[in-house]
Design a protein that fits this description.
The structure holds two protein chains of two kinds. Chain A is mainly α. Chain A has two domains: 45 residues; 37 residues. Helices cover 85% and strands 0% of the residues of chain A. In chain A, helix 2 runs antiparallel to helix 3. The radius of gyration of chain A is 28 Å and the shape is rod-shaped. The model of chain A has no long low-confidence stretch (mean pLDDT 82). In chain B, helix 6 packs parallel to helix 16. Chain B has one domain. The longest helix of chain B has 31 residues. In chain B, 56% of the residues are buried. The mean pLDDT of chain B is 91. Chain B contains 21 helices and no strands. Classes of the chains: A mainly alpha, B mainly alpha. Chains A and B meet through helix 1 of A and helix 7, helix 8, helix 9, helix 10 and helix 15 of B.
């Protein structure tokens, strides 16, 4: 076997070990960071509006109010869906 | 008589060499594959036509003063085209599945093993006569295993510009062959029971998380691996345009107009690298062969990582989704879905496979950054 090729292969193996280690470390840290972010958002972030809750919050007085409630719920649902 | 002779000597027929002849046929072959077989038509049509144009004798369209040659110098040599494509990919990609289950990033990391294994393979080819790959060449060839066209072009333009044509063609043709290459490997490495595992539904992701996500990725990249910052930076910028929800016009431009224009120009420029002297060499054959190996190893290591995760979580993860860790968005996720449906007709894995799939994009960009940092220095 050619000595220079052997040296190159050793270089390559070294590159593989360090490269894969860095890729794994990077992505593992990203996993941790994303977990932290999600927890922080769940704890301190704004509440996503709940469509049902809003619909129930409106007092059911008369037909107009019920209609408003239905429309509000529909709009909320539409917005929630299109935010995704 | 002399005038006639001069005229004859300026014709294409008189100047056509056998290499150009073969490359004209290759160009036609690529266009045929795109139109008749629907293999990555968005890329193969421009690449094929670029090949035709740049192998027209005398015209020199692909040369340094030719039209395509200049496009190449502006967009590919500088690395700008692949970066603009990354902007578009960022604007098109929904990272929701990844945010809901970050652990799938590990699958995207495992699939990058294909890159490094191929790097060794390319160096080992030096033992055969006719091959002389340097470490930089081998790194550029290995990135084919990342199954990510723009990343491969970006890295090749930095590390091995001479091999760019062969590497780009290999990267994109294997992306088209994902549905053929992957399933046998996935079936060989998993049991029918594992393939039938039904996964829990993903939790909904809030808007704030989606907006913060690009910053998290960019932050880590800036802290740990600045050499990957061009790729990751454009990807996260595109994604922020999408998720911020206030710049719809820019987001749509990145997803449509910009990426389309760049795809045309990039295709033509790559086609110009498919010229006889550069392409018809034993190296090209070696690169095409190594590319297939890279893909297979990447798929296999992704699935094996999936098996490990399946075992660790007590059977909650379907190992098949590991195969989507090679990027090739969204083709490999669809392949996972299809193979999963074969084992269990009610098991839709598409959304679960999108997590590792987009993780693969980040993973191969990170791997490219590592190679840039370690090899070019």
């Amino acid at each position: 076997m050619d000595a220079s090729v052997t040296a190159l292969l050793v270089d390559g193996l070294w590159l593989m070990v360090t490269g894969l280690t860095i890729v794994f470390v990077f992505l593992l840290m990203l996993v941790g960071l994303l977990d932290l972010m999600s927890k922080a958002v769940a704890r301190w972030g704004p509440q996503e509006p709940q469509p049902e809750a809003v619909a129930q919050a409106l007092p059911p007085t008369g037909d107009d109010a019920r209609l408003t409630a239905v429309i509000t719920a529909a709009i909320q649902q539409y917005r929630a869906r299109h935010r995704a | 008589m002399d005038a006639l002779l001069t005229l004859w000597q300026s014709t294409g027929i008189a100047n056509l060499t056998w290499r150009e002849g073969i490359m004209l046929l290759v160009g036609c072959g690529l266009i045929y594959l795109a139109i008749a077989k629907r293999f990555e038509p968005l890329l193969l049509v421009p690449i094929g036509f670029g090949t035709l144009l740049s192998n027209i004798p005398v015209a020199g369209i692909g040369g340094p003063d030719g039209m395509i040659g200049m496009i190449y110098a502006i967009g590919v040599e500088t690395g700008i085209f692949p970066l603009l494509i990354f902007l578009g990919i960022g604007a098109m990609t929904d990272f929701g599945a990844l945010i809901a289950r970050p652990s799938t990033l590990l699958l995207g990391a495992a699939a990058q093993f294909g890159i490094f294994a191929t790097l060794i393979g390319a160096l080992a080819l030096n033992l055969l006569p006719g091959f002389q790959f340097s470490l930089a060449d081998a790194a550029a060839i290995g990135i084919i295993g990342g199954a990510d066209g723009p990343t491969a072009i970006f890295l090749a333009s930095r590390l091995a510009p001479d091999l760019l044509g062969a590497i780009a063609v290999a990267a994109y043709s294997y992306m088209a062959l994902v549905p053929i290459i992957q399933p046998p490997i996935m079936r060989a490495l998993t049991t029918p029971a594992e393939r039938a595992i039904v996964m829990e539904q993903l939790r909904p992701v809030t808007r704030l998380e989606r907006i913060l996500f690009p910053f998290m990725v960019l932050l880590l990249c800036a802290l740990l691996l600045p050499s990957a910052a061009p790729l990751i930076g454009m990807l996260t910028f595109g994604n922020l345009l999408r998720e911020s929800g206030v710049v719809d016009r820019l987001s749509r431009a990145a997803q449509n107009e910009i990426i389309n224009v760049v795809t045309i120009l990039l295709g033509l420029a790559i086609g110009s690298k498919l010229s006889g002297e550069l392409f018809l060499t034993p190296q090209t054959l070696g690169i095409l062969l190594l590319g297939a190996i890279a893909f297979s190893i990447g798929t296999a290591s992704g699935v094996l990582m999936g098996k490990i995760m399946c075992w660790v979580t007590g059977g909650k993860v379907n190992p098949l989704i590991g195969a989507a860790g090679v990027s090739a968005v969204p083709m490999s996720a669809r392949v996972v879905n299809k193979v999963g449906l074969e084992a269990n007709h009610h098991n839709f894995l598409l959304m679960h496979a999108m997590g590792p799939n987009v993780a693969g994009v980040i993973g191969s960009a990170v791997a490219a950054g590592v190679l840039l940092a370690l090899v070019s220095g």
